[in-house]
Specification:
This protein is of the alpha+beta class. Helices cover 51% and strands 18% of the residues. It has one domain. It has a 4-stranded mixed sheet with strand order 1-2-3-4, with helices on one face. A hairpin with a 5-residue loop joins strand 3 and strand 4. The N terminus is likely disordered.
Length: 177
């Protein structure tokens, strides 16, 4: 459980770090780089977790109960992400007036970032669009595995939404496992 907490929280903070440069559009300050790679221990524990091969009848039973279980797992994942966002609170206040993560059942985590100060929408959208590859890689290497390890599934989705202070949407993108 401890590994899941660290890894799940790191996913939202990494995505957040990818977008922080928009708050200072035109700033020459370098952005901190965040690692999206799981630690060797995390990768090893995922790859070597012993699981018995289910029989054909056992495969059907989890599918029948998967929606309720997946929703509870999504709630647990969302709670972990919210705790990480709350822990980062003051460090985010200069850039964002609000950062939320909410569930969209059965399998989607929605991260919404609202800037504290107005940013040029077209410029911000272009910059966020240029980071799609990084966000997709983050989802594939960290977010989706964390969600899956917590029982969200059989597929996982993440939506990132960036808004200006007036509530107008600058950019959004949904990634699917």
């Amino acid at each position: 459980m401890f590994t899941k907490t660290i890894r799940a929280g790191a996913t939202s903070l990494t995505a957040l770090a990818l977008a922080l440069s928009l708050a200072a559009c035109g700033s020459d300050e370098p952005e901190p780089e965040a690692s999206t790679e799981p630690t060797t221990q995390e990768a090893t524990s995922e790859a070597t977790t012993p699981e018995a091969e289910p029989s054909a009848t056992e495969e059907k039973a989890p599918e029948e109960t998967a929606p309720a279980d997946s929703e509870a797992a999504l709630d647990e994942y969302i709670a972990l992400e919210q705790a990480q966002l709350e822990a980062a609170g003051d460090s985010l206040a200069d850039v964002y007036s609000e950062v939320t993560v909410t569930p969209e059942y059965p399998d989607t985590a929605v991260f919404t970032y609202t800037y504290a100060q107005e940013v040029p929408a077209e410029e911000a959208a272009a910059q966020l669009e240029s980071m799609v590859g990084d966000l997709k890689e983050l989802c594939e290497t960290a977010v989706f595995p964390a969600m899956e390890s917590m029982g969200v599934g059989p597929s996982q989705k993440v939506t990132y939404i960036y808004n200006n202070p007036d509530g107008s949407e600058i950019w959004s993108q949904t990634f699917e496992s």
